[in-house]
Design goal:
With 183 residues, the protein is α+β, with helices and mostly antiparallel strands. It has two helices and three strands; from the N terminus they run ααβββ. A three-stranded antiparallel beta sheet has the order 1-2-3, with no helix packed on it. A hairpin with a 3-residue loop joins β1 and β2.
Amino acid sequence: MERPGELGTKEFFTAEEAAAWEREENRRRNRDLIDPRTGGLNDVPGVVVPYNEFWFERGDKAIGTRRTSLLIDPPDGRFPPLTAEGQKRAEARAIYDRNNQIGRPKADSWEDRPLQERCLMGLNSGPPMHPGAYNNNFQLFQTPEYVVIHTEMVHDARIVPMEWASLPQHSPMEGRVTRTLGG
């Protein structure tokens, strides 16, 4: 999503840079190289590594344009800094995630568990739609009235009306549906 900080404002890789980035990123994210005693990329020491690399299909190639970030504004391709309140929430989330990783989750009720764990929301169903660790397949269905984008992860279906008139009056989507013209 965002550009690695060490790339500064570099918008695109050369073909050689993209190949080198792919090799290094694939090595860095390889689950088979995580030592449970010392931890790894997103894993704290003592964590159980649940899947080996065989099961992952997170996308292992730079995109065709070799763009270094999906974010194009601001020019550094990075999310703006968090506000003080946002930082506080991020720190609380990090503690929550760390406790989950080492087997001490908050689980007083089903409401304490994340939507993804309860299979209510997929990890890669967007927006934007981008590869996750696995289940990255999409199916598109179109009728004269609708397009359906169906994701493999949690079988999420986005139903997009082709005409504005097809939106029911007082729909929860009323005023929230916009067209993407590319760019």
